[in-house]
Amino acid sequence: MSVLQVLVADDEPVSRTVVGAMLKKAGYAVTYAPDGEQAWAQLNGDDPPAIALLDWEMPGLAGPEVIARIRAHASPTPTYVILLTSRDSSADIVAGLKAGADDYVTKPANEDELVARVNVGARVVELQGALADRVHNLEEALANVRALQTLLPMCAYCKAIRNDQNYWEKVETYFHDHSGVSFSHSYCPNCYERFVKPQLDALEDVSDATRKPNRP
Amino acid sequence: MSEPVLDEAVIDSLRQLTPPGEPDVLAEVLQLFLKDVPRRIAKLRAAWSNGDAAEVHKVAHSLKGSAGNVGAKALHAACRQLDEHGRVGDLSGTGPLVESVDREFARVEAEIRRLLG
Q: So what's the pLDDT on residue A137?
């Protein structure tokens, strides 16, 4: 399992450093942002952190505003957001969760509690990732099924199929390309009687004819 | 016996944050505190002199966070009261609180220098 990346966004350097050290000790890769704008830049950039700890009060963009931006961007694997704040009244907790936070930790953070909550976030992130992969695979499978459900033009004589590029290809090739099905070639009992047996008989006649002169 | 300037339990937990072979987290945090906090106390004083309650609330709030993180209880308490006064927009009678922020920081600074050796 790869190391999960966690963003710690707080304008207060002492708190940022302490929280970061707690997470590093717990085995997470930590990145930092000193304000909301830089936090958003990381979350909206390439390879964004899976989990974000955002301070409620930051200059520029405050925590809830960063959350609003994150939630405005639909993603199959949304960032797990924990608001960090010294506000601890239940009205503030409700406001933070309504703003779109997944969880809430009061400052100064208790190490065990903080790490336990981030671990919950990591579990959610992994589940979402597995789910997103599964949905992707199912969508691909569905697309293949759809491709086979369409009306296929087939030659009435040689059974070749006209593909999307207007090119006639063998049934085997067409199905292999569109479904991953492979064919192994054999013959049914009817065709054995109709085609294979006469050929074998003919072959036997030929070999009898060629052997005859050698017989004493 | 008076209460210790820095909560020993907090200092101990900071000490234990250092992973093997890494730079000392406690020293890093304490040095950061000494570098960052005086600047913000000056801002607090300026905001208070200007009667800017919103700014007092903002700066005292962040100072409260820093103080809490190193277990500076008395400094934390003074900042918390200023934070609250600023939040409700009433700075009257808060002069002694600003004085106590200065005084408590001086004690914390001395204790940190002793810890850093």
A: 92
